[in-house]
Amino acid sequence: MTKPRILIIENEILIARELKARLKGLDYAVVGIVLSGREAIQAASELRPDIVLMDIVLKGALDGISAADEIRTRFDIPVVYVTAYADESTLKRAKVTEPYGYIVKPFSESEVHAAIEMALYKHQKERNLREAKEAGLLQAAIVESSSDAIIGWTLGGTIFSWNPGAERLYGYSASEALGQCIATLTVPPEQHIEIAQIQERIGQGQRVEDYETVRVRKDGKRIEVSLTVCPIRNSTGEILGVAAIGHERTELKQAEKKPQVLK
Fold first, then answer.
1. Which domains does the chain have, with CATH numbers?
2. What is the pLDDT, as a whole number, of residue 187?
3. pTM of the predicted model, to two decimals?
């Protein structure tokens, strides 16, 4: 397992060296020590540590609070303040920079260790949530812009997702389709067993690829479609529903063709 990489920003070099020794004893990797705010920003940019331990009072015009704010916004690196200043006005300024911890000197190794571990954990959780949200937004955009009909329904058959492609293919608006039963809305009555077969496959965690069958539009017209159906899972792998991606093959202009049999 890779050791967490820590950058120390400290006004007093002797304190910085003592902190470095303690961190090494706790099995962390110290990637650098700097004394000023400007150096802190440059070091964060070049070294990209996992976490920064920041003194509030620093040499030069840029104090630790201002440096921490820039490091957080530019590089998404968590900052823990390590300082002797705990007055109300300082705390108020520090809060604005959204630090991941605040250690008041003099401190113990256990305090430093706990603050670092909590900060790393919190930052990773926030990053995971942010990435999941971004992925969800991207996925939603893809679904909305797709020319294919993309439909989601529960294991009980209730439709909960109906994209513009589905509106075009089947003729129902999303408001008309949501909450309806997938079988009764789009499947010919004599083929309802097909949905039960698909549900059984999905319940076993299987996919149905390029399945050619017949569906019914809102206006009653029967159309040939090609479907790919797969399970919808939550973060623990539990199957919550069904996702189907489909597109029209050709309109049925003659007698109804028999659908494929699921094997």
1. 5-139 (3.40.50.2300), 146-251 (3.30.450.20)
2. 93
3. 0.57
